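Shall we go through a protein fold together, starting from nothing but its sequence? Please make up or recall a protein chain and show it to me in full. Go ahead whenever you are ready, and we will take it from there.
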Amino acid sequence: MHLKTNDPTRLLWTGGWDSTYRLLDLAIVQKRRVQPIYVVDRRRPSWPVEVATMEKIRARLNAHDPNAGDRLAQTLVFELGDVAEDSSITDAFRRLRAVSMIGSQYDWLPRAMKQHNIKPVEIAVERCGHIRGIDFHLNGQVRQDGDAMVVQNLTGDLKIFSGFRFPVLHMSKRDMAKCAKENGFFELMKLTWFCHQPDAKGRPCGICNPCHFTIWEGLGWRLPLRRRVRHRHYALTNALKSKLKEYPQLYQRARGIKRSLSRRAL
């Protein structure tokens, strides 16, 4: 699956931190051509922000390094609603998900790439620091192939990732920030987007999973202070709920008090 050095690197790009880091590293540092690919999920409130973010990054890259900008092909855009069903992929995805939770994109991305016969394609999944989700499934199951990792055992359910390369699996978000600063494109990284539920003014919500992991992975400065406070309140509330559930009677009593206070507020 190793690419020739003169082949454009096919990269799933969302305007997010991880995929943008890989895109900029390829175009600026490695001086390689890139074919970005974007699958539009119009059910997600953030998709217009993602599209605007990618356009903004392109424009700023052209100003920052015109030669690097020329190395980016026009983005191939596919509609999630047009992705064909494939029971073999979806069934494998569901079995993986039953063992350790992974996002639905690990169902429809393999289906989309198979449908359009695009492989290999890079997907920017970072090292998280603890084994969860996709990390759980890939742990010990990948091998080095050029400058990316690939799944080495293609006989089980992980075969749905047979066409994928994982170029930043060895890096954390902080590692990417450090490398971006060293190579002069950190200001471009600040343009990236992450929140799935932005408000009407385009500000991150502070409580969706991407917001949570952005804070957890040491990039909390990317959220406004009020959103960081909201995140903290939300996390503490959930922790309290989880603890109260260990005492069913007390939990039900607390819920009753909350409903009573809510009715009085009305």
